[in-house]
PhzF family phenazine biosynthesis protein
Amino acid sequence: MTDYDVVRVFCGPTGGYGNELGVVREGSVLPDPAERQEFAAKLGFSETVFVDDPERGVIDIYTPSSRLPFAGHPCVGAAWLLDVPELVVPAGVVGARQDGEFCWIEARAEWAPPRTLRRYGSAAEVDDLAVPPAGEWVYAWAWEDEPGGRVRARGFPGRGDGVEEDEATGAAALLLTDQLGRALNITQGAGSQILTAPQPGGWVEIGGRVFLER
């Protein structure tokens, strides 16, 4: 069995929740994309990262069914685990920094895969949603406190690959922040926390807590 680490990304204030991420630190053991895809499907996490150069931060990201040019929670988790100032993904160079209990990355909205950002009237409506049919990737959200920038959200990948709901989704948070043009404090899934902040030149920072699970 290929060795891998598991980290939880975008954990809540007490360290709970967060989205699990598989990280294969020695990406060279599975160099072929088809092998990586098969392994990511076997692990079944919403995303799995393969590290191709730990010093330069070169990583390769897979869902159980596809390869991604960029994804938020894998980049935050990998940046924290590798402790590097930047990551290199197919979409571009992702800036990274550690700030106390939070790890931050900086990315661009156009790097994110397509998401349907669907606004609801209240947080309770988002809480009560059933998993929609497979098809589009839906990010359901509502204001909990609009003046304070607090958002309630849930993510439904709709890929039909076994991941019905994504506990914490950095790419969707990136798109929402870019659309709204303001900093956000997002509670997603069962209790994960994602912080975002627009930056000059079309960049957006995404931050959260990361814990090593195993």
The radius of gyration is 16 Å. The first helix runs from residue 33 to 43.
